[in-house]
From TrEMBL:
Name of this chain's protein: Histidinol-phosphate aminotransferase
InterPro entries in UniProt: Aminotransferase_I/II_large (IPR004839), HisP_aminotrans (IPR005861), HistidinolP_aminotransfase (IPR050106), PyrdxlP-dep_Trfase (IPR015424), PyrdxlP-dep_Trfase_major (IPR015421), PyrdxlP-dep_Trfase_small (IPR015422)
GO biological process annotation, one example: L-histidine biosynthetic process
Cofactor(s) the protein requires to work: pyridoxal 5'-phosphate
Keyword Transcription attributed: no
Protein family: Belongs to the class-II pyridoxal-phosphate-dependent aminotransferase family. Histidinol-phosphate aminotransferase subfamily.
NCBIfam families for this protein: hisC
GO molecular function, one term: pyridoxal phosphate binding
Length: 352
């Protein structure tokens, strides 16, 4: 604590991201990055933009990229807000749609950034318990005071909530904003984007960090009806006019235009997820059915803390959250087939 800190800084409890270790021989399966490089068209577009020069400011309204995202989702540019990673989009959304004195709701097991934003912006919250199989308790989100947010598929479990259930939560909160954080939706069966035209209180947030192999580029976006998008734009323009740089705009636009490459790498991860899940069951793991690019597992004999430490010793990084009721689980990112073959060998070694 410093006497120079504002009350806002004093009350913050910052988010702790997964370890980023710059070491060549480590098998990094802890932050849900994509093992495949982005489309070659993305790197070409960035090089072209760089050759054009970066002495001029980028577009403050990110027109071209919003067009590409809108067209990919069969929406209009007015339905799209772009931010510097979806974490920024989420932070702006908390500021734009949630407020002090009105408790919002999210699940007890969820993305750990939500309580961080609540503390930062002084927004009260209620946690809705998840069920024993980690599925969401739908009615628990009905008639909230200040709004609702949850990831779908949920993090860090990978459990997916059906679109019908999402729609009923949105319907039962018609005076508040419901934010669906779809960071992993490209690995799942369906997106809530199809509900946007029906519900003015629905905001869908997505990212290029996971399914589009662009975690290093920092592009996230929100999709919703124009009045929600305008709310976000007002926050952004009261904060930083240029949150997205020229190279990121060019690269992300190219990614949305190259549909076949995206489809291919996503499909690959789904195949890998399926066989890795089967193999881990053979090794005595209980694997929660996942619709994301990671799996959430627990072992019938060895504790998650022990396994996390043993894995780390032999150069395998997975994610362990030391928090009830998930302290005996590990979250493992799906890498390439080669990564996962190595992982399974190491898992067998640890369990010997
Ligand atoms: C990874 C992740 C994000 C943040 O993604 P960025 O776009 O890289 O900031 C947001 N929500 C959830 C649930 C995530 O897992």
């Amino acid at each position: 604590m410093s006497k120079f800190w504002s009350s806002m800084v004093k009350r913050t409890v910052p988010y702790i991201p997964g370890e980023q270790i710059d070491q060549k021989d480590i098998l990094k399966l802890n932050t849900n990055e994509n093992p495949y490089p982005p489309s070659p068209k993305v790197t070409d577009a960035i090089k072209t933009e760089l050759a054009r020069g970066i002495n001029l400011y980028p577009s403050p309204t990110v027109e071209q990229l919003r067009d590409a995202i809108a067209s990919y989702n069969q929406l209009a540019k007015e339905n799209v807000f772009v931010g510097n990673g979806s974490d920024e989009v989420l932070a702006f959304s908390f500021m734009a749609f949630f407020e002090s004195g009105k408790a919002i709701r999210f699940p007890t097991v969820t993305y750990s950034f939500y309580p961080v934003y609540c503390k930062l912006f002084d927004i009260p919250y209620e946690e809705v318990p998840v069920q024993r199989d980690f599925s969401l308790q739908v009615e628990g989100f009905f008639q909230s005071e200040g709004g609702v947010i949850f990831p779908n598929p949920n993090a860090p479990t990978g459990v997916f909530l059906s679109l019908d259930d999402v729609a009923s939560i949105v319907e039962q909160n018609s005076e508040q904003v419901v934010i669906i954080d779809e960071a992993y939706v490209d690995f799942a069966t369906e997106s809530a984007v199809s509900l946007i035209q029906t519900y003015p209180n629905l905001l869908v947030v997505q990212t290029t960090s996971k399914s589009r192999s662009l975690a290093g580029l920092r592009i996230g976006y929100a999709l919703g009806q124009p009045e929600l998008i305008e709310g976000l734009t007002r926050i952004k323009d009261s904060f930083n006019s240029y949150t997205i740089d020229r190279l990121a705009i060019a690269g992300a636009e190219a990614s949305f235009r190259d549909k076949s490459y995206f489809k291919e790498t996503t499909q690959k991860i789904l195949q890998t997820r399926s066989w890795v899940s089967d193999e881990l069951k053979q090794l005595g793991f209980h694997v929660i059915p996942s619709q994301a690019n990671f799996i959430f597992v627990t072992h019938y004999k060895e504790s998650a803390t022990y396994l996390y430490q043993q894995f780390k010793k032999i150069g395998v990084l997975v994610r362990h959250f030391n928090k009830h009721p998930i302290n005996n689980y590990l979250r493992i990112t799906i890498g390439s087939d080669q990564d996962m073959k190595l992982f399974l060998t190491k898992a067998a070694q640890v369990l010997q």
